[in-house]
Specification:
The complex is a heterodimer of chains A (593) and B (281). Chain A is an all-alpha fold. Chain A has 24 helices and four strands. The radius of gyration of chain A is 28 Å and the shape is globular. The chains are: A mainly alpha (593), B alpha/beta (281).
Chain lengths: 593, 281
């Protein structure tokens, strides 16, 4: 049977067709040319501001003296202590964090969002602020010692001890365990453990044989990340550990500043680089595995309210414990910064005990004989200026990087050079993550202190170092968001009559804009609190707030201690505001680390 | 009127479209049906100007659209997965293609027309599949495109909802007098909604015609198989004793199909017998 298919035939219009083809190829070519140029510019930045400083470290570190450093028993004692304190901190952090992770993974309860907001607090809290907080809590002039003294009990010096270091590390990293493990756990199917129970396993065995193995990728990744942070911890160890304790990071700083032994510092930096790169590589492998968990379940399915009184009580204890851990040093800091308890040196007459704003007023003084040529409050101004420059630089570098990585290249237009460029860009994100702040600072110190690129006097030197440190966070904030923009949305907008400019304005910009603000807040907070690289690069006439805190906290006298605390409170407020902004704008489901 | 002339498109070694030509009259709804990967979506992309053909041309009222960018064509496209903008409310999604001061009022009216009165402020990510489908339809209809293309608009929904919405969609397209191309792999949808049906396979047009003729008289073996199970019976066109022309087969004589066609008396013919066509007397 023959159907009655009618066909419309018409003359082929080849001329206009060829025209359209030519146009489309030109525009695709333009995009890929631009991408190539962008990639080259970013890579060039890294050549000058990352590889050149690292080469300077290698140039200074690789020498006959390096063998002496590596053969020195002291070196290996320091490496040993670095690993030991990091391992101990990691174990303790896991022990403190896991109950919290379980709670947020499996239950819904009032105050959950408050707890989540709270766990964001330590994430970018400056190390010096935390160190000052613990000083105000457990230090020689801290609340606990004051309490013990008023009860006429012995006052043990809890700072300048391993315990203080461990405590600060737990404060910092419990959040990571709760978020990383908790998020992963919240998507594990609870029926698997329930199935084990129906097969006769008791609670413990069901956990050990089913839940724990399923959880292990998240546990390993969290543990490794915490280990990396503890391994490269600098400010906390320097201030809370005191002269008796040295991690690799602290030792590099001391070799540079106390002994001016740059070859030894460089040799230690190479050792540090090897360690951190190995750890970062393993972490990246592990976290790639995390992104595809088996039996992914929505939290609607895995979470339930706290039913029994016993569970409610247990949850209350866990939450209260976490609040105490995360808030007590900061609260102690705030309270101590407005409390006068002892006489000033040279102060005559009766000691006025009670509330005071003297420490804040003293921030505006510029006494003679101070370490600085400027008033302490000016240091905060410097910090904010540096942070703003860092925000600009890191967005200037991060937005094109995220764009080049996120925008898919047109089909068939991938040249080999471009493919290689993309791979190179991806790995560039890892470099600053695998480089400790002190190593980076030392590299800058060695590379930019002399011709051909003498930036020693440039106000850009510190922001450039901060930009490299913030870069991975900026790109990792922007990239998932940019990748989440589906090409369908742009195409749908075009079919609704939106010109390319309108598509960019109404689709790309509102979505990226939010992420860019989050990235900017990240960069701002990171720069504001950065102490490692800054400690090596700072100049006396342009101190940052963190440097000022460090210098005051190490000096005798109640006024200096008070100034350190007051300065810490100001820095804490500045950082906390940017964290709040991040939390408010964070887009659900976007990776954090 | 949309006319499409000899569109050909290849992706690497894959032939997505081969010499595809057809026309859609103003006010007419044409469905394009075929298995997945037959080139339906590529066809829509090219008509919308989101993709360029290797050769061939798309005309609107005998004017070539080659080189015209998507946003200047005035063709709407409703995407298979809706492609709703996640950062905008339902109302803002619908108002996106509109302009002027009363665009939000217009958007509300259209939302009401698709059965979503009061949905203006809703976050599109919290809507059900059926609601998202309606928002997407409202958004595509709102600018009153001269041609609306719908790419498997009901594909993501379950069977029952799909059957209900097929009827609603047809009524809505008629009501708007909307010229439309409707792509689907579902026969029931295709035949239920169309003025014209075009069957595609492997980038080629297998058959074009009104739904009745395509269903009852598949142009070839492939179309017959695609449109569903049935038995083929050989027969011959004969003038019966009563003077009526019929088809004589081994299982009796059958009347001619109701639409005009030509087969000489005495000609060999193949009859397609479908289960739903058989009735007990």
């Amino acid at each position: 049977m023959d159907g009655d298919c009618g066909e419309v035939r018409s003359q082929k219009t080849e001329v206009s067709n060829q025209k359209s083809e030519g146009k489309s190829q030109r525009s695709e070519g333009g995009v890929s040319d631009f991408r190539l140029l962008t990639s080259i510019a970013i890579i060039l930045f890294f050549v000058v501001f990352y590889f050149y400083p690292m080469a300077a470290i290698i140039g200074r570190g690789v020498s006959p003296a390096m063998l002496d450093t590596l053969a020195d028993a002291d070196t290996w004692r320091i490496v040993g202590f670095t690993c030991w304190q990091a391992a101990l901190s990691t174990l303790l952090t896991l022990a403190v964090g896991l109950p919290g992770a379980y709670l947020v993974a499996r239950y819904t309860f009032r105050g959950q969002s408050l707890l989540r907001a709270l766990t964001a607090v330590p994430f970018v809290m400056p190390t010096l602020v935390v160190a000052a907080g613990f000083n105000a809590l457990i230090g020689k002039r801290g609340w606990i010692n004051l309490l013990l003294a008023s009860l006429r009990l012995p006052t043990p010096a809890l700072t300048h001890s391993l315990a203080a270091i461990l405590l600060a590390h737990i404060f910092y990293n419990t959040t990571i365990v709760i978020r990383l493990v908790g998020d992963y756990w919240s998507h594990l199917d609870p029926r698997l453990a329930q199935a084990a129970r129906t097969l006769g396993a008791n609670r413990l065995r069901a956990f050990a044989a089913v839940t724990l193995p399923l959880l292990s990728p998240a546990l390993l990744a969290a543990a490794l990340l915490v280990f990396i942070f503890d391994f490269t911890s600098f400010g906390v160890v320097l201030v809370l550990g005191g002269p008796r304790f040295a991690t690799l990071e602290v030792e590099i700083y001391r070799q540079t500043f106390a002994f001016f032994d740059l070859p030894a510092a460089a040799a230690l930096s190479l050792l540090q680089l090897a360690c951190t790169f190995a750890l970062t590589l393993i972490y990246t492998r592990l976290s790639a595995r995390l992104s595809a968990p088996a039996n992914l379940r929505s939290t609607e399915f895995t979470q339930k309210p706290l039913h029994t009184l016993r569970r409610k009580l247990a949850a209350a204890i866990i939450v209260a414990g976490l609040f105490a851990l995360l808030l007590s040093p900061l609260a102690a800091l705030g309270a101590r910064s407005v409390t006068r308890l002892e006489a000033e040196r040279g102060q005559r007459g009766e000691i006025q005990r009670g509330l005071t704003l003297d420490y804040y007023r003293a921030l505006f003084d510029n006494e003679r004989g101070e370490a600085f040529f400027v008033s302490p409050i000016a240091a905060l101004g410097n910090s904010i200026r540096y942070a703003l420059i860092t925000v600009m630089l890191s967005l200037l570098l991060g937005i094109p990087t995220a764009w080049a990585l996120a925008t898919p290249s047109p089909v068939g237009a991938v040249s080999t050079a471009e493919g290689r460029g993309g791979g190179l860009l991806e790995s560039l994100i890892l470099l600053p993550l695998g480089t400790s702040a002190i190593t980076l600072g030392l590299g800058f110190l060695l590379a930019f202190n002399r011709a051909p690129l003498n930036l020693r006097a440039s106000p850009l030197l510190i922001p450039l170092a901060h930009t490299l440190i913030a870069f991975p966070f900026v790109v990792r904030t922007l990239l998932p968001t940019w990748r989440s923009i589906r090409p369908q949305w742009r195409r749908a907008a075009a079919t609704l009559g939106a010109s390319p400019a309108k598509v960019w304005r109404r689709i790309d910009l509102p979505i990226i804009g939010r992420a860019a603000i989050v990235a900017a807040a990240f960069a701002f907070a990171i720069s504001l609190g950065e102490f490692g690289a800054t400690a090596l690069l700072t100049r006396p006439e342009l101190p940052t707030a963190a440097v000022a805190i460090y210098s005051f906290i190490g000096k005798p006298g109640a006024l200096n201690f008070g100034r350190a605390l007051a300065m810490s409170v100001l820095l804490m407020i500045a950082t906390a505001s940017s964290i709040l902004l991040i939390e408010k704008l964070r887009i659900k489901g976007v990776a954090e680390f | 009127m949309l006319t499409v002339h000899h569109l050909t498109k290849t992706f690497g070694a894959v032939l997505a479209l081969s010499e595809v030509s057809f026309a859609v009259k103003t006010g007419e709804v044409m469905t394009v049906i075929g298995p997945s990967g037959c080139g339906k979506s590529t066809l829509l992309s090219i008509i919308a100007g989101l993709d360029t053909p290797d050769s061939g041309d798309v005309h609107w009222n005998d004017q070539s659209l080659a080189g015209a960018p998507t946003h200047e064509r005035g063709f709407g496209l409703m995407f298979q997965d809706y492609a709703l903008f996640p950062h905008m409310s339902a109302g803002d999604n619908v108002a996106f293609g509109l302009s002027g001061n009363d665009k939000h009022r217009t958007a509300s009216e259209i939302l009401e027309r698709v059965g979503l009165a009061g949905f203006e402020k809703r976050d599109v990510q919290t809507l059900s599949g059926g609601e998202q489908q309606r928002v997407a339809l409202a958004r595509a209809l709102a600018p009153r495109p001269r041609l609306l293309m719908l790419d498997e608009p009901l594909g993501a929904l379950d069977r029952a909802l799909r059957e209900q919405l097929t009827g609603e969609l047809r009524a809505l397209l008629r009501e708007f007098g909307q010229t439309a191309i409707y792509v689907t792999h579902d026969q029931q949808e295709a035949f239920g909604i169309a003025d014209t049906v075009m069957v595609m396979n492997g980038g080629r047009v297998e058959q074009t015609g009104n739904p009745e003729s395509v269903y009852r008289c598949p142009a070839n073996e492939w179309v017959r198989r695609f449109l569903g199970p049935g038995r083929l019976i050989e027969g011959r066109v004969e003038r019966g004793a009563d003077g009526e022309i019929g088809i004589s087969t081994t299982i009796g004589t059958w009347p001619l199909p109701p639409h005009e066609w030509s087969a000489p008396i005495g000609g060999e013919i193949i009859l397609l017998l479908r289960a739903e066509g058989v009735r007990k007397k």
